[in-house]
Amino acid sequence: MKARTLRAWSWVHKWSSLVSTAFLLMLCVTGLPLVFTHEIEHVLMEKAWTPADPGGPGLNLDQVLGVALARKPGEVPAFMSFDEDRPVVNVTSVHPDGKEGVYSFQPIDQTSGDPAPPVAGHPVTEFLLQLHTDMFLGLPGMLFLGAMGVLLIAALASGVVLYAPFMRRLPFGTVRTRRQARTRWLDYHNMLGVVTLAWVLVVGATGVVNTLATPIIDYWKDTALKALTQAYDSPVAPGQHSSLQAAVDKARAALPGMQLQFVAFPGSAYSTDHHYAVFFRGDTPLTAHLTTPALIDARSGNLAAVAPLPWYVKALSLSQPLHFGDYGGLPLKILWALLDIAAIVILGSGLYLWLAKRKAGA
């Protein structure tokens, strides 16, 4: 490689790393406990609980929704989700004139309508997730962190290009432990960088995709779902909604063999202003993260369409759990955590090497 080309790649590696290092360190540090979110919340929040009437007929979804909205007067429903291992329906509502992103979340015992203890959402993990996702800045924060992810990918690519010429005289993975500290850390930095390259690239790329969640969903609604809204002259007001239970039953009949995951109400992020979007998922570790919505006309209750998600929304659906290693249970999460620690060492050693080089130059 020519010296001029080498200097150009070295410049790309240095500045793409330096500009993004502080934010990437924050993402790695906050991401480490988030890998174990389910386990942490299971220990901190789960309480012994039994439904009020385990053998009873239970409330239908319209009754559950009525109970939830009666406790939050003035709010309108946004989402409804369902616990897998207990008869609990989670209703998320929002005030029409409230602050954007502020929701009310109510787990409700479907056998009685009584409040049920939540199984997720500990304040510590919620704080870390918000910091990790958008630094409490909303969409601008998400897009900024996405840009830092792009710089990470540039640093990885340039690091791979530079690895061969810098390490050509040494066996792979060599760490010169008897040399001065700067040389040792350079070897650690290079070795860990190459060994974890594929993982860092996967986590970095999925992180970038996750930061684009809002534009991706908006594009999906403006393109794939736009044809379904052309027949309507105005949004459907909450008082005009048809039966929710009937809508879910009709959607279930249109997608037999799939598991009900959640319902997005008209006007929410994952639906149109005119439809219930009833989402179903598969029952394998992979297909559990691939959803298919059935759109039900919120006025008439008729099936409007079964709308398989386009590739870019599927990519978003797969990126979110893959980013945190939420596919293979606890063993995969432990591996993710160890690789995250390695990434922290890489970032820290890179910053140390830059500071040591400046000090030596001075």
Which properties best describe this structure?
362 residues, alpha+beta, seven-stranded antiparallel beta sheet
The outline comes out as elongated
Strand tally: 7
Round the Cα radius of gyration to an integer and report it.
Answer: 25 Å
Q: How many distinct domains?
A: 3
Helix content: 40-55%
**Beginning-to-end CA distance, first to last residue:** 29 Å
Average pLDDT reading = 87
Instruction: Report the structural category.
Output: alpha+beta
Proportion of beta-strand residues: 5-15%
The strands making up the biggest β-sheet line up spatially as 3-2-1-4-5-6-7
Low-confidence stretches: none
The helix/strand series, from N terminus to C terminus, equals HHHEEEHHHHHHHEEEEHH
Number of helices: 12
Q: Major sheet: size, sense and barrel closure? A: 7 strands, antiparallel
Write a structural description:
The structure is a single chain. This protein is an alpha+beta fold. It has 3 domains: 3-40 and 128-211 and 325-361, no CATH class; 62-119; 243-309. The protein is 54% helix and 12% strand. The protein is built from 12 helices and 7 strands. It has a 7-stranded antiparallel β-sheet, covered by helices on one side. β6 and β7 (303-306) form a beta hairpin. α1 crosses α12 (329-361). It is elongated. The mean pLDDT is 87.
